Amino acid sequence: MSPRLLALIPLAVGINLAMGLIVQAVGLPIFLDTIGTVLVAVLAGSRAAVVTGTLSQTVFTVLSGNPMWLYFLPLQVTVALYAGFVASKGGFRSLPTAVLWGIGLGILAATLSWPISFHVFGGVTSVGMALVVTVLEFIGAPLGVAVYAASMMVDITDKMVTFIMLRSLLVSLPRRVVGRFPRSAVAMGSD
Amino acid sequence: MVVSSGCSCFGLDAGDPLVSLKGVAYRYPGADEPAIDGVDLEFQGGEVTLVTGPLDAGCSTLLIVAAGLVPRVMGGSLSGQVEILGLDARDEKLGVHLAGRVGLLLPTPWTQLSGMAFTVKDEIAFGPSNLGWNRKEIGAAVDRAMEELDITKLADRDPTRLSGGELQKVMMASVVSMNPDVLLLDEPAIELDPRAAGALYELLPALANDRVLVVASTDIDRIHHVADRTVVLGGGRVLGDGPTAEILRNPDFHASTTTVGRVFHAAEVESFPVTIDKAVERFGGRC
Amino acid sequence: MVGYIPGDGPMHRTHPLTALSIVVLVATGAFAVPGMWNTAFVGVAVVLVLVERVPRVFKTAVPLALPFWFFLLLLHGLMGDDWQRGVILAARITTMVFVFLVFLASVHPARLVEAFVAKKAPFFVAFLFAATLQAVPDLRSRAAAVLEAQRCRGLRAGGGLANRVGALVPLTVPLVMSALAGLDEKTVALETRGATGGAAKTPLNPPADPLSSRIVRWSSLLAAVVLVWTRVTLW
């Protein structure tokens, strides 16, 4: 692994884990805990992003002290692979394309996290999720459907906003950074 | 690992320069202008070379080029010929061949922390352990480097909780502990107070023993007396290169001389002293 | 808080990977043993905490586990009329949380990294794990600083969804930019400090790994595999 990636990946994981503070301050019920992973996918490709995602989930698990988070590892890996693909297709060339790709990832992520939330956690992954699930079940939705609906709401918003943030980042990326990571120009749609 | 100095170099004969740059220009990725251009320099072992010049003169870039980091690590475009210990800078295997043989100290020591050490001792051991030395050799190298920089008392501290000055000395020890053949120091005392900076410069001649030692600094007042040779850069080009005493007295480089030198230059005195001691000696008793 | 607690219990003294294997065994047990029998593993986990003499673990573990009991019993028991499922799920999660926290309390990250290096793990694995643990608090304090600065400039984070998302931009962009700012220097430092030279890194303080520790480790892992295998084939 190149020294540049060795230097970049810990920072990207740090970004993933620091975003919690920021979304909390803004008061949004989302996580944005894959921004660093998507950033690495855009700057350096899927492989490095998979390492970033895996490491993020591991370190987050260690720091939170809650081992259950490790179950969401497949989700981080999916985000890494998907974002690498989107970047290689120039998916960040405009805000609407970024939003669309983000929604796509949200649907994929919800579909993937649903079985984890349902089977491992019985629908109780976080207090916010649990409340949504409880309300939906109370009004008559079967538990499985309630968990899926809650995952959808949260994941689509989360991944869409993540991709919007990435687009904003790429627009303001200094030329010297683009010069060091030529892939980022591809993600922005230039050949 | 070789504890004593003396360089086992690739295809170099005795007397050949350890580092040589011929007609070198380098442009950073994403930059319009080259940071250094038309640079011809050779560096021998055993002498302290001072590289100086105004901001953006290309001093830091020169060190990065001399360390063999371009274009391999930094990207960008390099033209001309760069040879380090007899190896071409474009050699793809350069990283493996040069590991531990070129030490570079950056002026931002906090960016140089390994992130893998929980004590100062382990921070200094990071380089040698990466080179695969055995623990006995590592222990000896770490102890010697800490002694040389007078930081033995910091050995068990957390490297992320040091003052800027302490950290800069720790990072210098981290570079020296690898016993490199080429030692490149970029503003090695920028985080130190003036007295500590002076003390650090005093160590340089001993460190230059047999190895190339290039130090980029604008702290000419304190560092000039340890530098055998001075290179003045401006706008990425070499403006002057020669014995330090000559360069400091050369009116062309008045901006790159000592405070005393600048005062006398402004007074339009011909052949002037450049240190306070020399000035006192020469004008002693006259005023 | 979660994290290492100095001590001299058996998990503190043994090889970090042996400690990890014990944790894996107990956690696997909570998942593999059928029916309510798995609640026994909550007991095992509690015994681990007591043997290790790290009672502070309860302070973190209990508040982490309690909400799961509450919601799981509410969802599955009260509303779904399947109390047993609620208890089984909650017992699994509680066991995981307890043993994991005992592990974190017993094994200092530096020792774990040394164990990786001593076992000839690839350099990047050991490096990234250690460097990330140090980067996270750094990035968190940067995020806090960015928040502070933008609030001083009158950033208001409220209102509708679009407004809140808009407020994220001036917080996220500076955070990422400041993280990327020192990247060149870090890259250069790693390169010139031999991190990518390809030599096998020497462990500086390799943890002792006597025969007894290796026996415990491999039998724990074997037992965990047997548990999973029995679970898959028999039930």
Q: Please, could you describe this protein's structure?
A:
The complex is a heterotrimer of chains A (191), B (287) and C (235). Chain A is mostly helical and 191 residues long. Chain A has one domain: Orthogonal Bundle (Arp2/3 complex 21 kDa subunit ARPC3). Chain A has nine helices and no strands. In chain A, helix 1 packs antiparallel against helix 2. The radius of gyration of chain A is 17 Å and the shape is globular. Chain A starts with a helix and ends with a helix. Chain B has three domains: 16-101 and 180-249, Rossmann fold (3-Layer(aba) Sandwich); 119-174, no CATH class; 257-287, no CATH class. Chain B has helices at residues 59-66, 94-98, 120-130, 135-148, 164-176, 194-202, 204-207, 220-223, 244-249, 259-266, 276-283, and strands at 19-27, 36-43, 48-52, 77-84, 87-88, 102-105, 182-186, 212-216, 229-234, 237-243. In chain B, strands 6-7-8-3-9-10 form a six-stranded mixed β-sheet, with helices on both faces. Chain B has a four-stranded antiparallel β-sheet with strand order 2-1-4-5. Chain B is globular and about 60 Å long. In chain B, 49% of the residues are buried. Mean pLDDT of chain B is 90; it is low at 1-7. With 235 residues, chain C is mainly α. Chain C folds into two domains: 10-115 and 206-234, no CATH class; 121-192, no CATH class. Chain C has ten helices and no strands. The longest helix of chain C has 30 residues, at 123-152. The radius of gyration of chain C is 23 Å and the shape is flat. The two termini of chain C are 39 Å apart. Chain A binds chain B through residues 2-4, 10, 174-180, and chain B through 28-31, 73-76, 115.
CATH class assignment of chain A:
Mainly Alpha
Q: How many domains of chain A?
A: 1
- Quaternary arrangement of the chains shown? heterotrimer
DSSP strand tally of chain C: 0
Content-based structural category of chain A: mainly alpha
Number of domains of chain C: 2
Q: What is the arithmetic mean of pLDDT of chain C?
A: 90
What's the CATH topology name of chain A? Arp2/3 complex 21 kDa subunit ARPC3
Name the chain pair with the biggest interface and residue counts per chain: A-C, 60 and 67 residues
| Percent in helix of chain C | over 70%
- Spatial shape of chain A: globular
How would you spell out the order of helices and strands of chain A? HHHHHHHHH
Q: Report the major sheet of chain C.
A: none
